[in-house]
Amino acid sequence: MVKYIRTALNAYLDQDPQNIISKAVKEKDEDNNYIYGLDSFDKEYYKSRFVVILKEDFPFGGNQFTIMFQDRPDKFFTAWVYEKPDKSYELRGFSSAKKQRQEDIDKVNTEFKDFLMDKVHSL
Fold first, then answer.
1. Is the dihedral of CA 119, 45, 18, 36 positive or negative?
2. Domain-located, residue 39
3. Domain limits for position 100
4. What whole-number distance in Å separates Cα of residue 95 and Cα of residue 118?
């Protein structure tokens, strides 16, 4: 699923509609807490490698991954990846919280710097 996030981000950058669903591009309008959709963020993020900070089961199936991009480690993003019956994957959601604790971002950037900047295991 994590490798699929890279596949989906590359498909988005290449404007390949076969490999990305439109819901993930512009999922819905913002609400009070989150900004949704790949179109809502600077594409420069997606050109960067990323690391997974957290993996959780998603209540509606699949997994939700909190990721951070190496070249711009200034915010956390959430990618919802769903496994379809044919065992292929689909990026069903992409978002970022409007309010993120700067101390959490700083902690990852300092205490987990080696992990964050690991070029071997990042995608």
1. positive
2. yes
3. 2-116
4. 23
